[in-house]
Amino acid sequence: MQLGSTAKKLLTTLIVLFALAVAGMIGVAHSGTAVSAQEGALEKTLHAISANNLNATGVAFADIYGEDKTAAAVACPGETTDELSSRLGVDVSGMNLADSGVPDGYNYLILADQNGDLTYDRMAMSDINLCAGQGQGTYRAYDIVPFVKDPATGAWVLAA
Q1: In a designed cystine with 71, which of 54, 110, 112, 119 is the match (CB 3.0 to 4.6 A)?
Q2: What is the mean pLDDT of each run of 10 residues along the chain (160 residues)?
Q3: Contact assessment for residue 40 and residue 121, using Cβ atoms and an 8 Å cutoff
């Protein structure tokens, strides 16, 4: 089969565009994986809710972090390890905070399981703000806690 010069150019262009599209999809998939690997479980959950164009939701931390979780607490900027340990009655030295405490612009969700083991999830407040409402609260992990998306900043805000 012989192709004319116009058909050869068209076919070559299509092959090059296809190769670029495949390379682009591989690049996007790779960078998407890297971003989601840095997100915590709550961030992934709320981003999935955002993808459905929802601006309010309720979640149970046990549903997100595991059914073995029994309690959760919020740590806000400036709170030190000693202050958190005193307020919560548990040793939170595993957070490995600097002497200045929780860094500005970040907050933590601290989760306890049935054995008393703690898990720490650090989030940028520009993405998820656990401290905007009542903040510094403690929660039973099976209770539904409300989150509302702030239209001005796009951040999810803990509303309880």
Answers
A1: 112
A2: 74 60 47 46 94 95 96 95 95 94 96 95 96 80 96 92
A3: yes
Q: Distance (Å, rounded) from C-alpha 156 to C-alpha 151?
A: 9
Q: How far apart are CA 155 and CA 93, in angstroms?
A: 28
- Who contacts 75 (Cβ-Cβ below 8 Å, separation ≥6)? 84, 92, 95, 102, 107, 108, 109, 110, 136
**Contact by Cβ (8 Å): 132, 157:** yes
Q: What pLDDT is recorded for position 35?
A: 33
| Structural tokens at position 131 | 């401290």
**Which residues, 6+ apart, have CB-to-CB distance to 150 below 8 Å?**
129, 132, 156, 157
User: What span, in angstroms and rounded, lies between the C-alpha atoms of 154 and 148?
Assistant: 10
Q: Are strands 69-75 and 106-113 parallel, antiparallel or unpaired?
A: antiparallel
d(CA 62, CA 86): 24
Give pLDDT, residue 79. 95
Task: List the chain domain ranges.
Answer: 1-38, 44-158
| CA distance linking residue 136 with residue 79, whole number of Å | 10
Question: Of all helices (H) and strands (E), which one includes residue 44?
Answer: helix 41-51
Model pLDDT, residue 145: 95
